[in-house]
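quick one: cytidine-5'-monophosphate bound model?
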Amino acid sequence: MNFLANKKILLAITGGISAYKAVILCRLLKKANAHVQVVMSKAATEFVTPLTFQAISGNPVLTNIFDDSASNDAMAHIHLVRDCDLFVIAPATADCLAKIAHGFADDLISALVLARNPQKCPLLLAPAMNNQMWENQITQENIAKLATQNGVKISYPAAGSQACGEIGVGRLVEPEFILEEIAMTLAPKILANQKVVITAGSTFERIDSVRGITNLSSGKMGFAIAKAAKFLGGDVCLIHGGTQLENQQFTFALFDYLQIQRIKIQTAEQMYNEVMQNFHENSQKIFVSVAAVADYRPSKVVDFKLKKNNFKHSQNLNAISLIENPDILASVAALPENQRPFCVGFAAESENLHEYAKQKLTKKNIPLLVGNLIQDGFGGENNKIILFDKYNNIKELPPDSKDNLAIEILKYAKNMLENK
Ligand code: C5P
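yep, here:
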C-alpha cells in the first residue's frame, strides 16, 4: 500500500524542539520512495541544521524567501508549492499557525502557504508547542480557523511530557503516525461515503474463568483491510477478537489516531451482535468477514476455575459438550436485500483450496470469496490469495504484503458493487 512512492512532498520545518522528529519523518518519507523538498524557518535552523535535512532528503534546503542560491530559482516561494503533491508543516509552531491563519507572507513558509492552490495541493499541519501555548485561546482560534479551510488537515498534537518539563497537550505526533496520515491523504478515495464493516482475529469461547477454546489467527489480514478501507476513504468499523499482531500497541494507537472505529469482542456471539447492529438501514455497505470464528462453544460456562476433580466427577469424563455458534457471514448474507451489504468471505484452507472456496461461496451465498492456503499466509506479513466471485471468475493475485492485497481485495469488491 505505498501511496507515497514518487510523490513530491514539500516538508516545512518551523522552530520548535520537536524539529528533530522532522528528521525522522524526512527519513521515513525517503524510505517510502517519496521525493522530499525541505524548507526551514530561520528559527528551525537553530534546532537542526539545514545540512542534516539536505543529507537525508538528498536536496538542497531552502530557508530564505530572498535567497535563490540553493535552488537557482528566484520564484521558489511560488514554484515549490506548485510542483508538489502535498505540503506538510511539521512541527508547526504557534507563531507559524498565527501567521498562516492571518495570511501573512513575510517569510518563505508563510509565503508558500499563501501561494498554494488548495485544490491541487493539500496542506497537512502538525502543530507542536508548549501546552499553555497550545491551549491559549488565540492558538485555538487560529487552529479552528485553519481546520475549516479548503484542503487543510491537522495532525493534532499529542498529550504527554514536554521538553520544557511540563505535562500536557502539545507534543508533535510521532513521525510514524504523520507518515501514515500523509499516505492516507494521498490515497485515492474510491470508498468515499462507503461504510465498511470488517471482522478480524480470533474468537475466544470460555470454558471456565480462565480457560477457553480459541485459534491462532493473527488478525493481520483483517487489520490490513480495515486500514486500507480507511485510506481509501471508507467509514470503517473493525470488530475484532484476539490478535497476534507483533506491533499491537502501535497498531491500536495508530487506529485510534486515524479514527478507525475498533470494537474488541471476545466471543462469536458478541461478534455476531456487534456486526448485526450495522445492517439495519437501507444503504449500500461492504462487509468483509476475515475473522476466524469458532464454530462451536462449550454449552456450559462456569464462573470459577474448574479443578481437576470437577472434570473427574462430571458425567462426561473426557468431553466438553459443545453447541454451535452463529455463522456471522452466512447470517449477514441472508439478510433481506435492502439491508444486506456486499459480503466478502475468507477461506483459509490447508488443501483443495479451489474446491472448498467455491463450495463456501455458494453455501454462504456471497458475491466474493478470498481464498488462501494456510501455509501461504497464516500469521505472516505476506499472503498469496485467489479471488473467487459469484460469476465464476477466478483471479489469482501475485504474492504480496497483506497491506497491498487488502487494497486489491477492496478495489475488486468496489468494482463488483459498481457493476452489479
Ligand atoms: O466455512 P467457514 O465457516 O470456515 O468460512 C469462513 C468464512 O466464514 C470466513 O469469512 C469467516 O469470517 C466466516 N465465519 C463467520 N462465522 C462463523 C464461521 C465463519 O462469519 N461462525
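The longest helix spans residues 402-418.
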